[in-house]
Queue: 2 jobs
Job 1
Amino acid sequence: MAEWIIYACISALLTGLMPSFLKTGAKKAAPALGAALLSTVVLLFAAGIVALEGRAEALLQLKNETLLYLVLSGVLQGVMWLSLCTALIHGGVSRVIPITNLEAVGVLGISAWLLRAVPGVWKLCCVVLLLLGTLLIESRPEKSGNGKWVLFAFLALLAAAAKTLVDTLYLEQSVVAESVANAVCTAVSSVLLWCIAALGKALRSAKRITADGWIFLVLAGMAVGVSWLCDSRARLLGDSSYLLPISCAAFPVAMLGARLFHKEEMPTGAMFGILLALAGMFGLLLEM
């Protein structure tokens, strides 16, 4: 097996497991504190990657326009992590992730609205599959009766889609290295989340986090950081046209993690929905 395929598969595996790690670690903490701790661990990895690549000096050479978009991307990343953490605390992984998995649909929607970019027939068919699969997954009866997670899951979706659009339209056109962009964005996210945690008095919830909770929060951050590193290596060594389809594996891994870590049941209809959503996402990624 080619080395880049191994890196791509590790990235998909860690991306899929991250939500379960985050939910386990942050379940007794305030969402803002959980997201802030996650961002700090990811920042350590991002800074380490920049140091290993010898790109530290590039941080001082960023143009004002590029820095502006990096800050915007970092703010959106912080909102995404805070919303995701809140949604996972109040809802199940197998309910939150199918909604955040609609990121590609969100990107198409924002592009059509702001840029008047009308999607073709193929993309529309894939969107229908993805939406239909998500509806089947979410058609399960709600046991807790707490629908707060839905709002934050959609907020995480919108923030992720907006960040992807900003990165695609502006940051990918610049000469800034991916590792440098990730480090700056994560630093902005971390500062934002720690400010929110401090102002909202979320720091007090730190004493409620168990030893296992701290471990899983660190694992969640490590999953993000290592997946970024593996993505970078896979793009360097392999054919980028094959990397996105492999990343689709993160979705079923996340659903499997919900079953293994949190005992969330998946009836037959939901399993069929996963297949439809996976087919839709796969088709969309092939077009990107």
Note: The chain has a mean pLDDT of 87.
Job 2
Amino acid sequence: MALERYGLKCEMGHKEVGGMKAQIDENGRMTHVCEQIEIDWRFADALQACDNEIFVRTIVREVFRGNGLEVSFKAKPMIGLAGNGEHTHIGMVAITKDGKMANLFAAAQPKEDFMSVVGYGSIMGLLKNYEVINPFVSATNDSLNRLKPGFEAPVCIVTSLGHTPAIPSRNRTILAGLIRDLENPMATRFELRACNPYTNTYLVLAAIYSAMLDGITASIDKSTKECVAEISKNAGEDGFYLEKDRAYRSEDDVFEDYTDEERTHLFGAPPATVWENMQGFETYPEKLKVITAGGALRPQIIDAFRDGALLRWKTELVSRIIPENREIVRKAKEIKSAYVTDQDSYNWNKINGLRTYLAKDSIDEKSLFTLLINALNEKDYATASGLQVEMYDKVEELKALYDAYAKNMI
């Protein structure tokens, strides 16, 4: 209701699938409710849409506060539960001199073609150049924690169009999907599913529209038949625009129907850390030229964004993530019991070895935590990135081992 009063024209507001069961006290009253809520609001031009996002976040926060509740926009506030996404919808419209609007993505014959040549070129430009768009989309530890298989959060550079033009796709496992309404051509658009509420949408849209223009330029003299063949090509096949060794379209469940190795082979390996993601600017200079060609993004803007993201990454690791993991190590203490089996001794030896490896320094050998902090302070970010991934793996291993160890105690 508050958003309506500000003219944001909410189209939908409902409970989503995330959250956890409510907690109830001895009197049957609910003490804690953790829910995931979805709000959709009406489209606008690119700049106004970015402004509206900030308005919505501010208004929602104040409404919750006014009712004595807390709301979080963090991408992954709780590990193990679905996080906060922000599905950014992208379209392109031409306005004629008489004021009429035409959706440039819409197919002339929607039951025969998925979309127009401009539409095909746009989604191909987005996907081909996503390695230099992704740093703007996911620039924090939190955002990358959300993008894990199993939570309907995309991890692969791939799209879904639908099995046939007559049946619109609702594949929720892909990065950017085609949204269509056969009765309403103006509804044709792309949904980028990787964003989160703290994604800088101003920079994301600047990069996306620049990349789409590159794809349009490459496709504009092609037929829709040639374009659908290009985006549907198999890895290893030559094309007129897309990279030879990659596939870009799947109508299957990306998480369930592919192994990790198959996903990486077909769609590329997703970045595991902020450092890896920011390296996209260095690794793909030809793609960086694409998103800066129109002048919407300048090298100074990109450099400032990258430096800020890396500073936040380093600060959060040193000040929050490593201390939190250190507490997990400290709490994994030996359990004293009158009845200890060989299984208990074996588990504890493995646990204590992990604890030492993670957090205990000696004169000659430094713990993983210390090595990670030292690498960050020395700006050896490549080493720090690898150590961060190892830290996550080792901490998860420790938690699983300690859980099994504690459950075996009687």
Note: The longest helix spans residues 299-331.
